[in-house]
UniProtKB/TrEMBL annotation:
<dbReference type="Pfam" id="PF22930">
    <property type="entry name" value="PDXDC1-like_cen"/>
</dbReference>
<protein>
    <recommendedName>
        <fullName>Pyridoxal-dependent decarboxylase domain-containing protein 1</fullName>
    </recommendedName>
</protein>
<keyword id="KW-0663">Pyridoxal phosphate</keyword>
<keyword id="KW-0210">Decarboxylase</keyword>
<feature type="domain" description="PDXDC1/PDXD2 second">
    <location>
        <begin position="360"/>
        <end position="433"/>
    </location>
</feature>
<dbReference type="Pfam" id="PF22937">
    <property type="entry name" value="PDXDC1-like_cen2"/>
</dbReference>
<dbReference type="Pfam" id="PF00282">
    <property type="entry name" value="Pyridoxal_deC"/>
</dbReference>
<dbReference type="InterPro" id="IPR015424">
    <property type="entry name" value="PyrdxlP-dep_Trfase"/>
</dbReference>
<dbReference type="InterPro" id="IPR050477">
    <property type="entry name" value="GrpII_AminoAcid_Decarb"/>
</dbReference>
<dbReference type="InterPro" id="IPR015421">
    <property type="entry name" value="PyrdxlP-dep_Trfase_major"/>
</dbReference>
<comment type="similarity">
    <text>Belongs to the group II decarboxylase family.</text>
</comment>
<feature type="domain" description="PDXDC1-like third">
    <location>
        <begin position="444"/>
        <end position="546"/>
    </location>
</feature>
<feature type="compositionally biased region" description="Polar residues">
    <location>
        <begin position="653"/>
        <end position="664"/>
    </location>
</feature>
<dbReference type="GO" id="GO:0030170">
    <property type="term" value="F:pyridoxal phosphate binding"/>
</dbReference>
<dbReference type="InterPro" id="IPR002129">
    <property type="entry name" value="PyrdxlP-dep_de-COase"/>
</dbReference>
<feature type="region of interest" description="Disordered">
    <location>
        <begin position="618"/>
        <end position="742"/>
    </location>
</feature>
<dbReference type="GO" id="GO:0016831">
    <property type="term" value="F:carboxy-lyase activity"/>
</dbReference>
């Protein structure tokens, strides 16, 4: 119990930090998992009973798979790694073609170097894995290019393969094995299997086929291109993916007449326990039955057909001109893979922007947009099973391959409808963003040198900008710190705006630093207003930073001047009152009989101007001077309607929002029809000393200037107290000057 509790904690220890989702294991999944436990129990039986049982399980599973996938008179090898079966097949072929290999080993390969041929569209790293496992040099691997003129761009070039084989034979090499694809890993293309098989027979080569399209061999109607796979010498199947069976091994079906060579290659084993690897699949096949297996594969094929029809309907009715491209990966209508991508074929009228003059790296930009599209679809419709693939010719595409994911994720027709619905929402946004990228670039250049446009084709959005401080005389390190500080604060303020546009620091592993990356935008976004806002906010942040830097020096000089003036005022007071009045006891009696009116005036410290002013005007007019009223402040000329977000045009033909002041106030129409003063298109900028606060601070009376002048303050307490009396109904906050500075 303690050990099981430990395992439970290890499984769920990171659930609070991450959303760990496990595969939904139904009853058929439990059957497959049960097979592993049964295999462990069966392995403790006595040897004779174990031999009979394992032989029965292995023979039944092999027979069922051969009948199910139309592979007559075949043997089966069950393996965990889906590449291991091909490795064992290569060893079988080497043993068959080199008669002295069993006794001489790799020395016999020096006379005739074996050559393994594979397609350029095959699994990445498969050929290198074969060479490393077989101990062959990489020169034994020959990658055959795909068609460049005729046929599909992802099918192996048969004529070029024939030429390469002849050249290798003339060079004294031995063509050993050809790896063909019945469904390439990226796009699901199928090679010309029939022609390739004839070529292998001509040169006595072993013909191996692998790919997801082999699953369609179980259907009642199979295309001729896939049906040719049953003529191959071996093929690798992954029924666990196709049928949604967890922890089920891959299977390599092969035909060979010499059991001794199969044993030497490792395709068969004399150990009964090794044969128990077929038990989970044996249980699952019986549970599903023939009809259940065919139904799962047919369901995946139906999902593909429905998706293609919905995509074509979507393109014809909503995306005109076409901005979504569906790639046809097969000539037949039963292709189990659908590829689609966002394309640049759109008009300026569709989004109100300019198409001409795309930014540099146009292909990289499209790849970034399609990568973003795939990531969004994965998040929004996770049960659809779509993923992003990188193809050599088409670039980045989104792939829908239900044969690999539908059984595991439980994909249904509703998921296809949800996928199409989300796609109809995302593609117009991508289209408008692509059209407005050039406008955003031009508007940014208009604000040069304060705003710099950063060229980053890998960013799926409107673009990236950087605010450059305009201060002169700063060294490089100081300038870099100021640059980072301003752009960090600018990003924070932009993120706080009431808008649907996403502002971020860019890709996690991006090359550009200290930049503002603008995400996807809709067609009604006013790019000019957006760039003006970014520039104004950056300028305000820079100016407020300079004010903070200068305030320390201003305050220091102001305090020194205040001390000098207070000292002079006390000296004048002493001359007016005389020495007798300064005596503690005599002075108080004399002041009682003959009070004297002091001529010392109050002072106000204006932080904005950095000067000391008299408070006489304040008390004579009974109002603080220098404070601007809200009605007199400059306002933005743009007026937003109730509920309207920032940077949005009010109508299709309306003028864009303009900006007249970066820190001004604007009158906004409220819901009840009244106009109330509110902030402009910018949010309130949190400056350490905005104009109103500086004016407020200028009316605060100094009670305590410094430690050195403490006695002087005590002497003028009566006068200051008299000056602090305000008219009734008017209150003025009087904190010490040091508190104001803090």
């Amino acid at each position: 119990a303690a050990i099981l509790h430990l395992v439970h904690n290890l499984i769920h220890e990171e659930e609070e930090e991450e959303d760990n989702r496990m595969q939904n294991v139904g009853e058929q999944g439990h059957m497959a998992l049960l097979g592993h436990s049964l295999a462990a129990y069966i392995s403790v039986l006595d040897r004779e009973r174990l031999r009979k049982l394992t032989t029965r399980i292995l023979s039944d599973t092999t027979l069922w798979l051969c009948r199910l996938f139309r592979y007559e008179n075949g043997s089966a090898y069950f393996h965990e790694d889906d590449r291991d079966g091909l490795v064992k097949v290569c060893r079988l072929v080497i043993n068959a073609r080199y008669e002295e290999y069993a006794s001489e080993g790799y020395a016999v390969l020096n006379f005739k170097q074996p050559v393994i041929y594979q397609s350029a569209s095959g699994r990445p790293g498969l050929g290198q894995h074969l060479c490393s496992q077989l101990g062959l040099p990489l020169s034994s691997l020959c990658t055959v290019p795909c068609n460049t003129i005729f046929g599909s761009q992802h099918q192996m070039d048969v004529a070029l393969l024939d030429k390469l084989i002849k050249e290798d034979i003339e060079a004294g090499k031995l063509p050993l094995l050809l790896i063909a694809n019945a469904g390439t890993p990226g796009a699901g293309h199928t090679d010309k299997l029939a022609r390739l098989k004839d070529l292998c027979d001509q040169y006595s080569m072993w013909f191996h086929v692998e790919g997801v399209n082999l699953a369609t061999l179980a259907l009642g109607q199979v295309t001729s291109a896939i049906m040719a796979a049953n003529r191959s010498d071996s093929m690798t199947l992954t029924p666990g993916q196709w049928l949604g069976l967890p922890a089920v091994t891959a299977v390599t079906l092969y035909r060979h007449e010499d059991p001794a060579l199969s044993l030497a290659a490792g395709l068969t084993s004399s150990q009964p326990v090794a044969k128990l690897r077929a038990l989970p699949l044996w249980l699952s096949l019986q549970y599903l039955g023939h009809n259940g297996i065919v139904q799962k594969i047919k369901h995946a094929a139906t999902l593909v057909s429905t998706t293609e029809k919905r995509f074509q309907f979507l393109i014809c009715n909503f995306f005109l001109p076409v901005s979504l491209c569906v790639q046809q990966v097969e000539d037949e209508l039963s292709s189990p893979v659908v590829l689609f991508k966002f394309s640049q074929e759109m008009s300026a009228a569709s989004s109100g922007g300019s198409v001409d003059g795309y930014c540099a790296g146009e292909k990289e930009v499209l790849d970034a947009f399609n990568r973003w599209l795939g990531e969004q679809l994965v998040q929004l419709v996770p049960t659809s099973g779509v993923d992003v693939v990188e193809l050599e010719d088409e670039g980045t595409c989104v792939r829908f391959s239900p044969l690999l994911t539908a059984a595991v994720l439980g994909t249904q027709q509703d998921d296809v409808e949800a996928l199409v619905e989300k796609l109809s929402e995302l593609v117009p946004v991508m289209s408008s963003t692509m059209c407005l990228r050039q406008d955003f670039r031009e508007e940014t250049h208009r604000h040069s040198p304060s705003l710099i446009y950063m060229e980053d084709p890998s960013w799926p959005g409107l673009g990236a900008v950087r605010y450059e401080p305009q201060a002169e005389g700063m060294d490089e390190s100081r300038r870099k710190q100021e640059l980072e500080k301003i752009n960090t604060e600018l990003l924070k303020k932009l993120q706080d705006l009431d808008t649907d546009i996403i502002f971020s620091t860019g890709p996690e592993f991006g090359t550009e630093e200290d930049c503002i990356f603008v995400g996807m935008v809709t067609e009604d976004v006013d790019v000019s207003e957006l760039v003006d806002t970014i520039a104004a906010l950056g300028r305000d942040i820079e100016e407020s930073g300079r004010l903070l830097e200068n305030m320390t020096e201003v305050v220091r000089k102001g305090i020194l001047e205040a001390e000098i003036q207070l000292q002079k005022a006390n000296e004048e007071k002493l001359m007016e009152e005389g020495v007798i009045r300064q005596l503690p006891l005599v002075g108080s009696v004399l002041n009682w009989f003959s009070p004297v009116q002091s001529s010392v005036k109050g002072r106000t410290f204006n932080l904005a101007a950095g000067s000391l002013d008299s408070t006489e005007v304040t008390y004579s007019t009974k109002a603080q001077t220098g404070r601007p009223s809200l009605q007199d402040t400059p306002s933005s000329s743009s007026k937003r309607l109730p509920g309207q977000r920032l940077f949005r045009r009010s109508g299709a033909g309306s003028d864009s929002f303009s900006e007249t002041s970066s820190i001004g106030q604007a009158e906004e129409i409220t819901r009840d029809g009244r106009t109330t003063p509110s902030s402009s298109i910018h949010p309130p900028i949190s400056q350490p000393a905005p104009e109103e606060d500086l004016q407020s601070a200028s009316n605060v009376f100094p009670e305590k200037i410094s430690e050195s002048s403490e006695q002087m303050h005590k002497q003028e307490e009566p006068e200051v107290a008299s000056e602090e009396r305000q008219p009734e109904g008017q209150e003025v906050e009087n904190p010490p000057l040091e508190t104001i500075l803090l």
